[in-house]
Amino acid sequence: MTEGVTQKALVIPQLIVGLGNPEPKYDQTRHNIGFAAIDALCRPWRISLTENRKFQGEYGEGIGPTKDKIRLLKPLTYMNLSGQAIQAVTNWYKLPPESVLVIYDDMDLPLGKTRLRLSGSAGGHNGIKSTITHLGTQNFPRLRIGIGRPKDSASSAESDSVSFVLGRFSKAETDLMSLILQHVVECLELCLKQGVEKAMNICNSRTIDFPKS
After folding, report:
1. What is the CATH number of domain 15-203?
2. DSSP-assigned states of every residue in the chain
3. Of 40, 83, 124, 184, which sits with the fewest C-beta atoms within 10 Å of its C-beta?
């Protein structure tokens, strides 16, 4: 028996949440990349989502790559109230905050980069602000997907940022995002198999480049 060595518990997600806005006009927008990530997970894991009023979102559960139960959620509350839907699920299933992994867009990361973290502040993201408020802690893992900034970002007017995040990807960016979403699926499968901390090393070191034409 080794003295003074405490085994750190692995952080394994039980609920994966993708942030976005409901309504067709927001489909495929940069701000809805969290929804796209959940859709990407549904395919290999064979999970189908259905609207669940109690959870204020589209919800589904199934067996993940480790043969354990995994739950997926797309809140339909609008971005700035996302925490309501997340709290509804965590309260119902009595899940601890550290078992909730949230996926969302980040303008501070360039396209092609993802960042996996065990905890952190909202960084100005309204969906994460709401999640922190409703879970009562910043200690939940999150995966940020870089969407970059507008090319003419000399004027960082808030209206420019809003129209950028609510805009759609170009054809080339859409092709790149499909590769990024494949990478996101791999990162999350690693989180389930080996824990978030181990997955961070691989997820955070890779940059996905535009596909060669």
Report:
1. 3.40.50.1470
2. --TT--PPPP---SEEEE----SGGGTTBGGGHHHHHHHHHHHHHT---EEETTTTEEEEEEE-TTSSEEEEEEE-S-GGGHHHHHHHHHHHHT--GGGEEEEEEETTS-TTBEEEES----TT-HHHHHHHHHHT-S-S-EEEEE----S-TTS--HHHHHHHHTSBPPHHHHHHHHHHHHHHHHHHHHHHHH-HHHHHHHHTT-BPPPPP-
3. 124
- Residue 31: active-site member: yes
> Which of these is catalytic: 31, 125, 134, 183?
31
Domain spans in the chain, listed from the N-terminal domain onward: 15-203
pLDDT in tens, 95-142: 999 999 999 999 999 999 999 999 999 988 999 999 999 999 999 999
Q: What is the pLDDT of residues 168-200, one digit of tens each?
A: 998 999 999 999 999 999 999 999 999 999 999
